Amino acid sequence: MTPAARVQASIEILDDILSGAPVEKALTGWARCSRFAGSKDRAAIRDHVFDALRRQRSYAALGGSDTGRGLMIGATRASGGDLAELFTGNRHAPMPVQETETARDFASEAEKYDIPEWLWPRFAASLNDALVPCAMSLQNRAPVHLRVNFHKTDPNDAIEALKSEGIVAHPVQICRTALKVTEGARRIAQSQAYARGLIELQDAASQAVVASLDLRPGMRVLDYCAGGGGKALALAAYEGVEVFAHDVNPGRMKDIPTRAERAGAKITTLNTAALSGLDPFDVVLVDAPCSGSGSWRRAPAGKWALTEERLRELTIIQARVLSDIAPLVRPGGLLAYATCSVLMDENGSIIADFLERHSGWRETYRKAWHVTHESDGFFTSHLTR
After folding, report:
1. Candidates 3.40.50.2300, 3.30.200.20, 3.40.50.150, 3.30.420.40; CATH matching 205-384
2. What string of DSSP letters covers 320-332?
3. Which of 134, 175, 225, 340 is catalytic?
């Protein structure tokens, strides 16, 4: 495919997404109907689509409309590309740009930095001086991070193993288990290092949340909202720690046994009914359902789908989950709350509300990682009684 044809394909996919189609469904549907597209074409188109979704508001302003075509015109203008070269109307290229498809000035800082207008004040209150740097970071692609599985290797050996397969990775300061991939990221899933369980794909801040726990041999640890098991696997890498994984939707945990076997780890998956027979736990980690605002570089459609009503619903869920799992922690044990959100509503405010309503509990640790720290945005708080 020519660069112009890739732009036209991106326009069609973006229009599908803007009409309500899930991002991955739109991309997969186009690929199935376009067997002529090679792997490099699909990768380039995927990059176009995700870039446009990250910068949907600013690209719409630069491109003259909030349509797939407008976003790709805006993307070309933002990158300094040649519109006349791409928008020719020839063969599979998009039609030439019209005089009416002009750029306009940004109506607000929220539009300039691609944040929903209603959310900008909350971002400002949550991030203070980090507001603009964080918003700008969310406009760009997230780094690719790996977790080194200390059961099987160490960072230096993992780096060498990856290098032998054309994957270049470097240590990340915020967590000793984390590596940042700078070359060959698309080869990871097919690499021997991955197949042998030496590494797992996991954001550095997500790893740092687990690393912040004082885990010791003999501890019984519950990952309450385990999902696919990324944090449970990180917990299980600690020698002598017994790890349990739970999710209200057990189907989300279906890959944990396979992932644990590859990693050489033991994780016991539990449904909700089984919790009461195994509590109390020394540590309960809850990566609570949240807006995902700290990971919008990876899932940019979530930024535009979030509403004030949905944010209120999430804070109610977060408060309820925290209260529900508190009895699962033994006296003197640790309740670790975490979100991949940068919003105060879902972080500090939830903790303040919990402490006000639960006497005897106190906070012993708090840490926030911004998206400017070479990671996703994450928050964690440790509570004990």
Report:
1. 3.40.50.150
2. HHHHHHGGGEEEE
3. 340
